[in-house]
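Quick one, T. Sequence first:
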Amino acid sequence: MDTMRDRFAPVMTRLLDEDPRVAVVLAEIGKDGFTEARRRHPDRVINIGIREQLLVGAGAGLALTGLRPVVHTFASFLVERPFEQVKLDLGHQDVGAVLVSAAASFDWPAGGFTHMAPGDVALLDTLDGWTVHVPGHPDEAEELLRQAVAAGDDKVYVRLSVQSNAQGLPVDGARFRTVREGRAGVVVAVGPMLDAVLAATEGLDVTVLYAATVRPFDGQALRRATEAAGTDVVLVEPYLAGTSTAAAGDALADVPHRVLGLGVRRRELRRYGTVDEHLTAHGLDAGSLRERIGGFLSASGRPRP
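Structure tokens:
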């Protein structure tokens, strides 16, 4: 199966052909996928070199001229390194762009910690007005990318990953999707965490919600799910643990509830390893998730099968 990032250049090439407002801004990474697109649209496919602050600044400048810029590089170089430009050039100037990242939390362990960005979504949470898509399958990535480009002048972050669920689901860029219904708790699986969550909760009497878009947070879907399944909530996210616990708490602010946030731990892993080894070390493999989710639900006093 191809990866989410494999879809990026072909989809963007078609969008460049279809929409004269679309522009792509690169910082070396991914440029080979745009050779033909750059030949056809030399004024709208721009490689600024390894200059990540300029990458975001150039995208903002294009937005000020009325274009719809799509800005791409690794997450650590797209959100963390040029954060001041994301905050000021886009946010303060109130212009939109589509930031499309690769490498996610630890997709390329051999690159070391400089190429990892488990805090990217949490960092964007400090800013106003961002839509954040976290697809769990290449088909979802393609659909959400198209929606992001078509989203007027909004500020959108699309988080691509080599981690993927076995099958894609229909996504609308807004709402959580109910995958399984139960009565003893709610588990929200974000993006590529869904397959592990389904395996971890097999036989447990819980509702599983799937989120491919996490900002805005679909608090209404969470509230509806808790009406039948109770207000014990577990969030399983492929980035920094606890990133969405405040959003879940806000959705349930007027009812007693418990929230457990599972994700990438703050402790830095100083060995390269593999993606699967990082998942296990952070407790995000199916076996670890079952133990942690089961323990949390048992502590509530609710009966479990």
